[in-house]
Amino acid sequence: MVRSATGRTLIPLAIVLLVAGVAFQPSGAQTPAAGGVTALTNARVIDGTGRAPFEQATILISGGMVTAVGAAPAVQVPLTATRVDMSGKTIVPGFINVHGHVQKGSENNLSVRDDLIRRLRLYASYGVTTVVSLDQNPADELETVRLRDEQSTMALDRTRIYTTGGSVRRLKTAQEARRAVDRVADLKVDLVKMHYDGPPDGISVETGNAIIDQAHRRGLRAAAHIFYLQEAKDALAGGVDIIAHSVRDRDVDQAFIAEMRRRDVGYVPTLTRELSVFVYESTPAFFKDPFFQRGIAVYGEQVPGLSNPAAQEKVRTNKTAQAIKQALVQANENLKTLQDAGITIAMGTDSGTALNPGRWQGYFEHVELEMMVKAGLTPMQALVASTGNAANVAKLDHVGMIVAGKAADLLVLDANPLRDIKNTRRISSVWVAGRRIQTPSTN
């Protein structure tokens, strides 16, 4: 089970200095003294549950947690509270990426720790306040566990991280699979990531079942990388807890839908993962998007290589890359089918993997929301998939909703995303554990 910070006290401290790599400017936020109360007033609040927004609402925050939320007459603001007027703003829960990656990049000389921290800060600056990192490299899996453990003892200025350690994959026997699960479980990870991989490197059904069973024996849930419908069915039959990619080879059928619903297994589409495979056949227009450019101090390490004409030609002539275009069409159709069938959809992007450049941490989460809506979800459904549903799928009971008792991880927007999902890009401020964090300068 994913470890939760519920019940742990978050002690407000001064925000630590940022590592080199992303330029930030002070937020100018009012921060209450230790033990104080902050009241965010006059806001529209979309709370992550799927219910209608609160209008002219107040959110009370104390000790890093939401203590009350609702229409102004129903929430009494203490006289000693620090008031922050949010007139004209829409507040949503900080986004949760159920399938991301926080891995050390190869394009810089930073230490593992410093590089991971700046990536977590990058995620946070885009309003992604929690990430479940599904697969680590050997160089960074221990540091991600350390960073997770620090979350309960510091005033966070970065995204919360949960981790699988390295993925369990390409094993021939059930005995090897169980040993591999034990290795990551001994690291005190939050869940286990497994790869089916497909032919010719794919695991057998027996080996896949052993991975899932051993994860459960160790008290951990299992998330499966799949591509084919049959792989997803094999994972379900073996007791998997999360389907961590779209089914991309054919339409999902009623037997699959019924089993997903019966066991309430979460489904994570990762549509931007498919986009990233073929979009660099030319220079994408979003390289000049100001919202993309706010992360350029990190993104700029990969942009030149992806803009190289020779590299783009390789994508244009790569049969797999071109085939993924149709796989994305299939993924969109299956997402709509599963949403309509009542399957729990959770947002994920596969962003941040060091092996595959061009999967942008922070930016791609907003693109994912837009792609989900384009596939047929309503803006509210996409927002819930990125907040309340994502928390439920990841078993993170302390985040994902703006309700009393949850962490005050908030994304404050200058416009209503229910009118246009692209309004998630209109970020006014980001709050993690009840504190407004520093945000990147786009000047």
Q: How are the SSEs ordered, and which strands pair?
A:
Elements: E1 24-25, E2 37-45, E3 54-62, E4 65-71, E5 82-85, E6 90-93, E7 95-100, H1 112-125, E8 128-133, H2 141-150, E9 160-163, H3 174-185, E10 192-195, H4 205-217, E11 222-225, H5 229-238, E12 242-243, H6 254-263, E13 266-267, H7 271-278, H8 290-293, H9 296-299, H10 303-306, H11 309-317, H12 319-340, H13 363-374, H14 379-385, H15 388-394, E14 410-413, E15 427-432, E16 435-436, E17 439-440
Parallel strand pairs: 2-5, 2-6, 7-8, 8-9, 10-11, 11-12, 12-13
Antiparallel strand pairs: 1-17, 2-3, 3-4, 6-14, 14-15, 15-16
Helix pairs in contact: 3-4, 4-5, 7-12, 13-14
